[in-house]
Design brief:
The protein is 48% helix and 17% strand. By secondary structure, the chain is of the alpha/beta class. It has a 6-stranded mixed β-sheet with strand order 1-4-3-2-5-6. This is PIN-like domain-containing protein.
Length: 221
């Protein structure tokens, strides 16, 4: 295998690492890169047949503070980039902790490997179609919710709340919020119940916005 590496930006302590399967997502996978910080690192994997980038992507990279590493992979083997990404993730986990990792790809074949890494290493690893989706996962989540059965929806709401309500400091109200989302029949119902429960319009609005992927499937009245 021939691997050429191009780096730009100063090296810093890294807590979040993004692995871009560029052959799979192209320039669109880099959407959201301007949200990254100097402590973030982005690996971009590509082959000779996918060595071009849009002007918008170039401009956004120049505006980002993250560390960029471009890896040209030249190997006449199927799924060479996929294997290289998973190998590099294993290597990165061994070097840097704590760490969060995101594979940017439309290929759901990564999901089994991600599940294995999560269970064995305890490191938070996810997959997104763009960097932006890592920060704002509502698009994919909305699609999942729309296709789910009622039972699946309850599970999704519970899991999502357990993971995402932590940042809003409402642990003492978490179970009640979950029940509101499960039992409410309309958007107005959700809003009214959250306002009554929390007695804080700003907090209620933050939670309503966070839970929007589930709210959008409900009728207005």
């Amino acid at each position: 295998m021939i691997e050429k590496i191009y780096e730009c930006s100063a090296q810093t302590t890294t807590n979040r690492v993004f692995y871009i399967d560029y052959e799979n997502v192209g320039s669109s996978g880099l959407e959201g890169i301007t949200e990254l910080k100097s402590s973030d690192k982005v690996f971009v994997y590509y082959g000779n047949d996918h060595a071009t980038m849009t002007l918008d992507a170039h401009m956004n990279i120049s505006l980002s503070n993250c560390r960029m590493i471009f890896k040209l992979i030249q190997m006449p083997v199927k799924n060479a980039i996929d294997c290289k990404i998973l190998f590099d993730i294993e290597e990165e986990i061994a070097k840097v902790k704590p760490i969060e990792i995101c594979i940017v790809s439309k290929d759901n074949d990564y999901d089994k490997a991600i599940e294995m890494f999560n269970s064995v290493t305890g490191v938070k690893i996810s997959r997104a179609v763009t960097i932006n989706e890592y920060f704002h996962p509502s698009t994919i989540l909305t699609k999942i919710v729309e296709k789910s059965t009622q039972k699946d929806r309850k599970t999704l709401i519970t899991d999502f709340c357990n993971e995402n309500l932590k940042s809003l400091s409402v642990d003492d109200r978490k179970e009640e919020i979950i029940q509101i989302m499960i039992s409410s029949k309309t958007k107005v119902d959700v809003n009214n119940k959250l306002s009554k429960l929390l007695r804080d319009s700003k907090k209620a609005s933050q939670i309503y916005k966070l839970l929007n992927p589930f709210v959008v499937a409900l009728p207005s009245n």
